[in-house]
Model the fold of this input.
Amino acid sequence: MSLLDTIRQWDEGAAAVGRKDWATALKVFSDIVDKNSKIYFNIGILYLITKDLDAAEKAFDNSIRKDEHLAVAFFQRGITFYKQQKFEESLSDFKKAFTELRGNQLIDYKLLGLRFKLYGCEVLHNVALAHAQLGQWEKAEENLHAALNLKTEAKHSLIDRALESILKHKLFDIVEAHAGEVFRPNKQHVAELEKKDYLGKATVVASIIPKDDFSGFAPLQPQVQEVPSRTKAPETLRALEGEPHRVRYEFIPETTDELPVQQGNIVFVLQKGADNWAKVFFNGKTGLVPYNFLEPVELTLSSRQEQDVKQTDSIPAPPSGEAPVRPARGKVQDPSVPSRKEEKAGNKDEKSKEPMMCVVKVHATYTVAVSLKPGISYTAVLEAISEKLNQPRGTISLSYKKNGTERAKLDESEMENAWKEERNGHLTLWCELTENIEMAPKDESPQVVAIYSYEASEPEDLQFNSGDVITVISKVNEEWFEGKCKGKVGIFPAAFVKDYKNKG
Done:
């Protein structure tokens, strides 16, 4: 079977998946002679949907055999083993999936044709669940704590709820991809399947023979010889101002004026400063990136097409060496920014900025977070947590993991040692209430009324109908709340409710 036939059948199978015609899609994919790793993966997904777990396991085996570094295939085979109650095999596959993330927080498979993001925190969530099924509760708790440090989105609050279940030696739901997400062929390759007539039909529009009966046009006249035009140089593909550069190493910003970029991104350098920092434009945003993280690149139309083909074939290889040392920050001169003299004259108190805040996570009946200044006293920490939990200070007992091993009770003398356990602006504490109070009294808890019905699309979502009264547990961010309704706890959009009064 030729490559064109393979792409044509692949596209037909993907179209059948879009119509949710699972039987037709499975037949089309199975009839492909030269199956690659992605097609075997699609077959495994369809067998999972039809609940043929043994066939799904074999399909994912073939997918991994074709590509031993396809992390999402290990992840899906781990889910298949879990549903077969093969918990040891499931644990092994989830660990391999996390290894193939190669230290990244996530892999976005969109460039490879799969609309799915594999998050490291979700993989560790499933690793913890497999440990719990094997009765290894301490290892499950360790993996969930590691998953908390990799959370990137509001929907990952399910990890906090999983940790609460583990502390009670209870199981929780597994995280899996949405049904029907399969690899699709490259759009450019599919477009090339259509036959194109580049020449068209020949038509006589003029003749060199006077009074030629075939043509109604006058004979062609001799033309004045013109000076040949200069050959045009290949046009550089530039949609933006600035010089194109490729990112060699992932850069994580530490201030608001710095720009996050990933290895392989193409950015446009607008200005380079003497302090080895460059002002770049990327993805509609402008910010600072270390210039030694970049390398110049010439983007022509042909090189861009070759780059697109390479990106659709496989995940880019990791950088061969370590990232260079972060350069010292200076200032990139910008016409819109005041000069150094004006800046000194107008901002004499610039050095008197407040210190960085520390995010303190408190594991109580439910997990909350407060922002505190590092090094403050135990009394100040207790006061902030008491206000956050809406509980009297006398009913709260705090502890922390001393040297990362066993828990130690907090008091004024121990608080200084606890601050030494701060890592990257984060500190974890545990809270025990002397009275058996699950949450603040209902008359003191903020409540909202649903003005629209909300249907849950994720396991961590809270579903409700218009007119339901919801008790707000915490504020996740400006757009999402965590609340309780009809005995269920989950997150929901703030725009779907009204009359919220923030007491914290």
Notes: The mean pLDDT is 79. The two ends are 66 Å apart (CA to CA). DSSP finds 14 helices and 17 strands in the chain. The longest strand covers residues 426-433.
